[in-house]
Amino acid sequence: MKENFNETMRWLHTYSGLIVGWLLFAIFVTGTSAYYKNEITLWMQPEFHKSKQSDKTLDIAINKAIEKIERNDKVSITLPNSRSNLLAVRVENSDKKEQTNKRKRRVPPTYYDASSGEKIEETTKTAGGNFLYRFHFELYEVPRSVGRWIVAIATMSMFVAIITGILIHKRIFKDIFTFRPKNNTRGWMDAHILPAVAALPFLIMITYSGLILLTGTIMPWGIKAYFGDNYRAYKQEYIKLYSVDNKEIETKRVILQNKEVENKVNIYSAINSNALRQAKNTNNSAKRLALTNANRQLHKYEYIETKNIITKETLNSIIKKANEIWPNNIGSFTIIKEKNKNPIVEVSPRVATTLFNYKMQREVATYDAKSLTLLDSSILPSLESNVLNTSTALRALHEAKFADSTLRFVFFVSGILGVVLVGTGLILWTQKRKKKNAIKKSFGFWLVEKLNLGTIVGIMLGLAVYFIANRVMSIDEVNRRDLEINAFFLAWLFSYIYAFLRDTSKAWKEQLLLTAVLFLSLPVINAITVLDSFLEIFTRDSIFIYFDIFFIFMALVCLLIRFILIRKERRTA
After folding, report:
1. How many domains does the chain have?
2. Contact between 192 and 424 (Cβ < 8 Å)
3. 86 forms bridges with which residues in the sheet?
């Protein structure tokens, strides 16, 4: 125990951050990139790049929906948005053999050009953004439960470091306006405190919510006490708690269909009565003719009633009605056919309007496809359980599922501040002990210094190589996905090996230069391998332009750090 409370907190802050600091840095980098995992996957599949949203997109989507629903039980259409330039169509069919198990056969979505409606074949098999997303909370090639335990321990250490950091900094809010850009301990301290204070609410939220999301792994005793080792039973109960009560929808559907039956009976009675009245005073031949005409009218009416309930006009009207609920915010719609029932159409917003919107309970407006009647419009949270509502809100916050493009960028910048916080914290440990190490060499100091270089520069180098590997590898390459991941880890391993074999000061400058060159080369490699002409650089979807900007930004950051290191050496000399 240290002499006083403040010293104890300072020691706890230092070593709770240092021991898992290198892992935390990797978790923050990959986790921050996961905010754009869909965009990363899209960038790594060049066959999808030419699609662009246009005024024809909605008409194309409606036509595809009408075409697909004729042969399928369920058709889901996802319109292009700020995260994707594609029109995605997913169909589902009930399998008779599986109906007893209440399972449905799902097929991957089919993608179409958003302006021409042409089908786009998915030819590039890539690990995409999903690899980075899974790595940040499960690591890689580690048993899932073990990986999550390791990440949970690191997250708890981060949470301890944040709380103790708040306690030991008496002038924490004043420090946000203080930055002395000198290459000494005080300058590194300011560089460490500034992002910590600027992103403090985000950092507390992201670490605490991360722990909550891993609760099932690190605190499984409640689940085991109730369900034992039957995880499937727990999962089914969990889904059951989240399932929406559709009694109100079914009641409205029954009322509508009863009215339709009543109308049919009235029409049939009117036709039959008219036919009998015409044939009353006629001979048998005329009577038979009158009844035959009546039957034709009945069949014709039945044909009109049942044929083409889902039409272009129907879907346009429903989407127009849904647009009144979510103005200019329609993101997807789903048509569902059920036996002996009118089809229904579910419409969802492009950007969530509430924090409680998640895959287990989502915003949706349900319409009867025949009468265009609004059957239900979900108002979230719809669950009575405050525990589940809190869990959903924390999950949505952690993953930014509810965020539009602007708020997602704010989360991304806050994540970068977290990366800077962890990185500067690792470097600060060596800066504080540099003079002491110059007098008496320490293996611990040497090890931390090498690990800092291999982690901080190495993961950036790995990301650059990961993107380059995607572009230079042949599309037909076997195990292409695994080769991309292997390229990432080999580059990262190279950084560690180089750090341990080379003088630390020189290794920093050389690896930063290499990383900068690789990031600068990415826009060029992309243009050569993907674009048909120079003009496409400016006419592409903005998603892909932002990637080029980010690559150039990363290169400039590496060059700036290298310039600072060279300048420090010259001053020292």
Report:
1. 2
2. yes
3. 113
